[in-house]
Amino acid sequence: ARRTVRVELADRSYDILIGPGLIAAAGREIASRLKGRKIAVITDENVAPIYLDNFLAALKVEGIDAVSLVLPAGEKTKSFEHLISVCDSVLAARIERNDAVVALGGGVIGDLTGFAAGIARRGSRFIQVPTSLLAQVDSSVGGKTGINSPHGKNLIGVFHQPDLVLADTDVLDTLSPREFRAGYAEVAKYGLIDKPDFFAWLEQNWQAVFAGGDARIEAIATSCQAKADVVAADERENGQRALLNLGHTFGHALEAATQYDSARLVHGEGVSIGMVLAHQFSTRMNLCSPDDGKRVEKHLREVGLPTSMDEIPGGLPPAEVLMDAIAQDKKVKGGKLTFILTRGVGQSFVADDVPQSEVVAFLKEKL
Ligand code: NAD
Ligand code: ZN
Q1: In this structure, are residues 267 and 255 in contact, taking their beta carbons and an 8 Å threshold?
Q2: 133 alpha carbon – ligand 2 mean position (Å)
Q3: pLDDT tens, position by position, for the chain (367 residues)?
């Protein structure tokens, strides 16, 4: 049951293949699309012992030569230091115009490797082999790449679209339940942005999505299609692409407030809490019925995601400090900020005139 989603951009397009067995089939899929016969594979220390040998073997059968680089796992790997090592290994492998750089891993490896591929030799071919649910439904699609700075997350990077995305749904079986749930927050996000029927389907079928099989493939394909549509309409985020940030303004502030410490909070968990807050804040702004917020909260809690700030271990700073983190993440003009608000499940929109004072008052109530 393999699915293909095509990302149609102004100047070119690429396929996202979704389904079981794609690591084993990677050699064939890559060889049929790539003129070159050399590949640099970048992965992390958790993914490498489980999947790297199989992936390299699949390439070798098709006569593709590969070198690999295994980096430490975790958000701290999205750094200048590791960007240098990835660029060095790409150049040392003499990856040329028709060859490719492959990211085999979660969003951390994808963002870092994509950035290196975007700048090495002024842009090398790039293939995403996302292995986390979050990477399969979100970060591997759309071409945003980058690393973190002491000034904030993802502040240094380039747009560099992949040439192919291979999402092997079998590999999600080895992902920790916590990381799977975190990725699921982004799946639910697509329903909450503008697909109320998809959200209702998830409410009915989430257990099957977690179990694997066709429901999982369906949920991933629907998510990729949703992201592909938004990216095709607004590749460089001049407008509607910002909708993908539903729940992320609060979420990023919570990630910053917990020092990106994955023991306390991972990205998808911050997004889960952030999406509930976005609905509650929209209710406060008289846009959204409180029942919609309750419905969102109920579903996310049911799958095991955190839905309120008091579930974050270790305590949080006061509302003003969280507001500072929000102001770092979003442009504030004359005390107003851009925020993704909602009129209800599946009715999100970009508001660019949200008073900062309202956000602070809301956070004070919630903390
Ligand atoms: P991650 O890459 O850290 O992966 C999560 C953990 O799971 C890691 O420990 C990893 O080693 C492990 N792992 C991955 N696949 C596995 C598998 N199949 N089996 C066992 N373990 C596995 O984190 P993530 O959640 O995949 O991605 C988060 C990153 O993605 C953040 O840095 C975020 O900023 C970025 N992101 C980027 C975009 C974008 O558009 N570029 C979008 C959303 C998120
Ligand atoms: Zn996200």
Answers
A1: yes
A2: 11
A3: 899 999 999 999 999 999 999 999 999 999 999 999 999 999 999 999 999 999 999 999 999 999 999 999 999 999 999 999 999 999 999 999 899 999 999 999 999 999 999 999 999 999 999 999 999 999 999 999 999 988 778 889 999 999 999 999 999 999 999 999 999 999 999 999 999 999 999 999 999 999 999 999 999 999 999 999 999 999 998 889 999 999 999 999 999 999 889 999 999 999 999 999 999 999 999 999 999 999 999 999 999 999 999 999 999 999 999 998 888 777 777 889 999 999 999 999 999 999 999 999 999 999 9
Which ipTM was obtained for this model?
A: 0.99
Enumerate domains of the chain plus CATH numbers: 3-174 (3.40.50.1970), 178-366 (1.20.1090.10)
How far from 114 is each of 185, 214, 220, 307, CA to CA, in Å? 23, 29, 21, 32
Mutate to test the pocket of ligand 1, among 254, 267, 305 (most ligand atoms within 8 A of CB): 267
How far does residue 259's CA lie from ligand 2's centre (Å)? 17
The pair of structure tokens assigned to 68 is 């690999």
Helix 214-233, helix 196-211: angle, nearest 10: 140
Catalytic residue among 29, 179, 186, 255: 186
Q: Which of 122, 151, 238, 331 is catalytic?
A: 122
Give 268 Cα–ligand 2 centroid separation in angstroms: 6
Catalytic option among 241, 279, 299, 330: 241
Q: Is 364 a catalytic residue?
A: no
Distance CA 178, CA 193 (A): 23
**Pair of tokens at residue 240:** 């509607």
